[in-house]
Specification:
The chain is mainly alpha-helical. The protein is 92% helix and 0% strand. The radius of gyration is 21 Å and the shape is rod-shaped.
Length: 48
């Protein structure tokens, strides 16, 4: 029970890293979505 602080610290680091990675993926997905929408609108303009 004396190493419980280390266990808590390790879990905290893992959860923070996971949260950061998920935020990074979310930001990249949003940028890709915007780029796809821009390309889609350009294609629609060329077809018309």
């Amino acid at each position: 029970m004396k190493n419980l602080g280390y266990l808590f610290a390790a879990y905290s680091v893992v959860w923070l890293a996971l949260f950061g990675y998920i935020c990074l993926l979310y930001n990249q997905q949003c940028k890709l979505q915007q780029e796809l929408e821009a390309l889609s609108s350009k294609l629609k303009l060329k077809r018309d």
